[in-house]
Amino acid sequence: MKPLFNTICFLILSLSLHFQTYAQSNSYWQQHVDYTMEIDMDVETYQYTGSQKLVYTNNSPDVLSRVFYHLYPNAFQPGSEMDARAQSIADPDARMAPNLGTRAAPNFESRINKLKPDEIGYIKVNSLLQNGKVVKHETIGTILVVELNEPIQPGEKTTFDMRFDAQVPVQIRRSGRNNNEGVALSMAQWYPKLAEYDTEGWHADPYIAREFYGVWGDFDVKITIDKNYTLGGTGYLQNPNEVGHGYETEPVKKHKGKKLTWHFKAPNVHDFTWVADPNYNHDMLQVENGPMLHFLYKNTMSAEKKDNWKKLQPLVAEMFQYYSGLVGKYPYEQYSVIQGGDGGMEYGMCTLTLGEGTLNGLVYSTLIHEVAHTWFQFVIANNELKHEWMDEGFATYIEYRALDTILKLNKQNPWERAYNIYIAYANSGTEQPETTHADRYIYNRSYSVSSYYKGAVFLAQLSYIIGEENLDKTLKQYFQQWSFKHPKPLDFIRIAEKISGMQLNWYLTEWTQTTNTIDYGIKSLEADGNATKVTLERIGLMPMPLDIEVEYMDGSKQQFYIPLRMLYGSKPTSATKLNDWAWAYPTYEFTIDKPRTTIKSVTIDKDGFMADVNKTNNKM
Whole-prediction pTM value? Predict the structure, then answer.
């Protein structure tokens, strides 16, 4: 019996070690929340009452003794943190200015500060229960702090029941009523929204200016509103043949009451947005092998503006096909493009955009970017307050790539504009690291350049480092592995390392955690008998591998590639591969086996994919 006993013990130990190893290698977890909400909207007062049942699953290894909710509409009150920041930042957002569309001087009186009591936004929590028992809570600005009666154990669910009153603010930023184009209700971040808890703890950030971070879950939402209003937004309409408004699949019976209840369900999303107006046209277009597209736009616009909305529909369908091929298939069954909000802004299964611009402006300045966010933020959902460049920059990268492909521009560097804006920023003396919290940038301009343009260059330049094919594979693998999750920067770069076989943590660190810049130059070209000695110098602190082009007097060209030692590898290339260059050495020499007199020029990074901040020394 003893040998059998030993064998059993060995098997148990082996299984135990196997499961421990599995748990360690699969340690990612995320919280889950299910919302059931019923809303009654008064379109005369812009006030609404709400009931919310929230089932929260604690998938963390931690015991939670309190939770936090976001009450975003509270930001639109005189004296709020959003109001204070708008009045103190050096370059205030034009949308906060008293006259929309103008850029005011510092210390102006913001639009929020001018709001009257019937124009402000608010959510007032009237009651809150945890598992049927009253729970202590306190509203602090845009955050509701809840002290739990029963701590939530790991793996445990708890249910919160809330009753609240709310008011829709005058449209100033994203959410609001009666926007600049007359859209009645743009309902973004409108409900008590549970804050995210992850490996870094609670993310109970006050709403000051930027974007969002939400818990993945399922939404079941009923909205009761004036029957003349057409709605659109997140989720799948459950009762299309009761409400009509272009959603019906069979004749709709005339509704006798003054209001209709719209019932939406949205599976596996991290936000819920809706828009309503009594004067919407509603068009639909099925994307081949993709979602049903809904287009809601004001029927009170001019014939020319409405015609633009007809023309943009197949172009949006083309975007879905392109992005699905580049990154991964759009996973939901519908997507809505809606005139509303204060400009282009992405939400779950929809985007809000101003609708009265030119066709090119609507499509190729706004929608092509906002639709890109469907992949990078609403399927892959990073924390937009801590790593804003991951969604804005990645969306900008694929946006520029789509523009080049769809418009057949055939640019050598489709991201040239992003490079130029970043380089000007890097040379301005105002740059802050991309690890800066989105609300902590000194200038709004710094936030924009860092998140959109430097973020896009991160990917374009990564393609320069590891090769375009490897980057394409990385994007697809990233989408496959991190859809419906909350990745961090290291999660992305580890995939790029596995795909390329190179070490890339140095690149992530240099580009996102410092303001070190790239500056390489050609120090000298010297005759060396029948050969030519080339001396290069690293002037900036950030290391890079180098592509070198030599052009000869007879017009022929030769390509060289200098690997960076800390990559411990090199990209696929047909260029002549030279010895690697270790960062600590400020200069590097190599020899061209042709006389100096035969060489017309030597150029570092001729195609401009390296974000060198001083290109004047890149050619000799």
Answer: 0.94
